[in-house]
């Protein structure tokens, strides 16, 4: 392996020692085959937990502005924060939406959900799909549905694009992790209380629930009027007057859960609880202070662009930044531009009116005070066009924006203005550790070998073959290996990025819109500010590293097909 990269290493050494090789020297060199070189290069890279992974080439020396989202990007929340959100959603359902107090006994499971799932509000299922919308995993309540049942339910096994946002809703933020757990727990809880009534009125999306004591007639009447549920009887009372029966649709259950989650964030009650004990809910280190100073020393402008309101952002940034360097009196001194209540993704479109905030009183003032962002000032709202104009941004690809939300942070900034993007994926740290374990490596090797054996079995057939090979046993072994491999990451949904060897929908979005990605923003500290990130080789199916099998076809030969 070492010999395969000697030539490349010698070129790199000459370049770093300021003795660049001549064109003649490069032409005379014998280069190794690309496949062997690719594997050798992987061994020379930084440890995975310190790395920034590259989808598209990016040169830091061409970046003039570096922007950051706040929540789950530079403010890294703990598992206790997820438990707080889960408990507050449950409380809101009980106290404001009439749900029975017994649901408070349902426990949060931090290992249940992953990002990138779809919720099917018609059948009440959580779905993990691949890059093409094909269903890879289906979970109802906390039960993984066997593939044959999934095929009976979904037919084509595919989520149609036109149904996304109407029947299927994407759970693509870290805030949705406790939300998904609440929904699944409620589905399982209520179905155990009664029986799923899949035949009633031809609607397979109905849960019949018997709830004793907690729902009053007024509660049920209100829920019926709002469309949250439908009463089986107008008076919703049983003959003995002790029990009340309610039919709750999965779609309405999901609406309630989602509204409860939104409400605890929009009315700031969750933020208030978080601020009461920041060390419990938010991780703190000097890494953000160090990175911002490093960016300034490289003559880059830095900005904070967050949806969080001023009061919360101020307390959070004070906690995260102040006290590390006496040269920075207040946290705002670290930033060239601060915009709160940005309302992304709308910020990247029409947005809202830009207002200035008095950092002492929090009072808003309407209208621009100048044609540029004033140092130490804080701004509210606005939109992308206004920001670029006031910041003096001429070309979108001179901006690197760092965030955790595939849609609001990465996709919209990339599509609307061509900003370069870095996606922060905290869950990647755990997945990298699992992938590096001997058991996960063995399962991956086994799966790849079995898939290759299946491909080779068909490859041995030609146009004259009349009988297909019997691969039933092989396919059964592949399916079992996929299940074992997936269970290493999550017993319900497997890896966030793959199922078996197939990429997930989340991975497809990440590859498409994020230029680079990493476990943590601080990994930028592991690279010089002139670094050139280079994407790995990604050959097309018709390309090959094996030159021994790539001879040009004769006039009588058909084009060589992919080995897959």
Main beta-sheet strand count, sense and barrel state: 10 strands, mixed
Helix percentage: 25-40%
| Rg for CA atoms | 28 Å
SS element count, helices:
18
> How far apart, in Å, are the first and last alpha carbons?
26 Å
Quick tags:
564 residues; alpha/beta; Rossmann fold; 3 domains; 18 helices; flat
Task: Provide a quick synopsis of the model.
This protein is α/β, with parallel strands linked by helices. Helices cover 37% and strands 15% of the residues. A hairpin with a 2-residue loop joins strand 6 (135-140) and strand 7.
Map the helices and strands:
Blueprint: H1 6-16, H2 23-28, H3 34-44, E1 53-54, E2 58-59, E3 65-68, H4 79-97, E4 117-120, E5 125-129, E6 135-140, E7 143-144, H5 147-154, E8 168-171, H6 176-193, E9 206-212, H7 217-226, E10 230-231, E11 243-249, H8 250-266, H9 269-276, H10 278-281, H11 287-297, E12 301-305, H12 310-321, E13 337-340, E14 354-357, E15 364-366, E16 378-381, H13 384-391, E17 399-403, H14 406-417, E18 420-424, H15 427-435, H16 438-459, H17 472-487, E19 498-499, E20 502-503, H18 505-513, E21 516-518, E22 532-533
Parallel strand pairs: 3-12, 3-17, 12-13, 13-16, 17-18, 18-21
Antiparallel strand pairs: 1-21, 2-22, 4-5, 4-8, 5-6, 6-7, 9-11, 10-11, 14-15, 14-16, 19-20
Helix pairs in contact: 4-6, 4-8, 6-8, 14-18, 16-17
């Amino acid at each position: 392996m070492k010999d395969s990269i000697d030539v490349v290493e010698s070129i790199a050494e000459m370049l770093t020692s300021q003795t660049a090789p001549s064109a003649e020297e490069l032409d005379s060199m014998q280069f190794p085959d690309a496949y062997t070189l690719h594997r050798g290069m992987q061994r020379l890279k930084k440890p995975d937990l310190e790395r920034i992974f590259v989808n598209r080439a990016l040169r830091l020396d061409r970046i003039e502005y570096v922007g950051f989202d706040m929540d789950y990007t530079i403010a890294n929340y703990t598992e206790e924060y997820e438990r707080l959100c889960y408990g507050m959603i449950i409380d809101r359902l009980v106290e404001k939406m009439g749900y029975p107090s017994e649901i408070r006994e349902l426990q949060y499971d931090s290992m249940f959900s992953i990002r990138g799932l779809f919720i099917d509000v018609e059948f009440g299922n959580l779905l993990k799909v691949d890059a093409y919308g094909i269903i890879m995993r289906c979970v109802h309540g906390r039960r993984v549905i066997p593939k044959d049942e999934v095929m009976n339910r979904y037919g084509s096994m595919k989520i149609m694009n036109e149904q996304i946002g109407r029947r299927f809703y994407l759970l693509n933020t870290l805030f949705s992790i406790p939300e998904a757990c609440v929904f699944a727990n409620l589905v399982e809880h209520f179905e155990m209380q009664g029986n799923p009534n899949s035949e009633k009125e031809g609607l397979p999306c109905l849960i019949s629930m018997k709830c004793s004591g907690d729902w009053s007639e007024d509660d049920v009447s209100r829920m019926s009027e709002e469309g949250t549920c439908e009463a089986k009887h107008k008076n919703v009372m049983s003959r003995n007057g002790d029990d009340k029966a309610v039919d709750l649709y999965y779609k309405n259950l999901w609406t309630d859960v989602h509204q409860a989650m939104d409400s605890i964030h929009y009315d700031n009650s969750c933020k208030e609880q978080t601020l009461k004990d920041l060390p419990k809910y938010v991780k703190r280190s000097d890494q953000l202070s160090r990175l911002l100073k490093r960016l300034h020393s490289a003559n880059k402008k830095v900005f904070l662009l967050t949806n969080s309101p001023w009061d919360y952002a101020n307390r959070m940034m004070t906690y995260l930044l102040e006290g590390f360097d006496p040269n920075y009196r207040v946290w705002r001194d670290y930033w060239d531009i601060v915009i709160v209540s940005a309302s992304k993704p709308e910020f990247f479109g029409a947005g809202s009116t830009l207002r200035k905030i008095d950092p002492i009183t929090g009072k808003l003032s309407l209208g621009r005070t100048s044609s540029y962002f004033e140092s130490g000032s804080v701004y509210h709202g606005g939109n992308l066009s206004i920001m670029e104009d006031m910041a003096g941004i001429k070309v979108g690809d001179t901006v690197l924006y760092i965030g955790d939300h595939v849609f609001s942070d990465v996709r919209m900034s990339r599509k609307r203005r061509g900003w370069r993007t870095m996606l922060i994926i905290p869950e990647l740290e755990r997945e990298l550790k699992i992938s590096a374990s001997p058991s996960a490596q063995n399962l991956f090797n086994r799966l790849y070998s079995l898939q290759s054996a299946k491909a080779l079995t068909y490859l041995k057939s030609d146009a004259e073959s009349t009988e297909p090979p019997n691969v039933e046993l092989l396919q059964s072994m592949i399916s079992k290996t996929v299940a074992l491999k997936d269970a290493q990451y999550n017993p319900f949904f497997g890896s966030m990025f793959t199922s078996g060897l197939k990429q997930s929908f989340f991975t497809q979005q990440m590859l498409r819109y994020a230029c680079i990605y990493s476990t943590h923003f601080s990994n930028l500290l592991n690279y010089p500010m002139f670094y050139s990130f280079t994407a790995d080789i990604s050959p097309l199916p018709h390309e090959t590293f094996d030159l021994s099998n790539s001879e040009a076809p004769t006039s009588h030969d058909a084009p060589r097909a992919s080995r897959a």
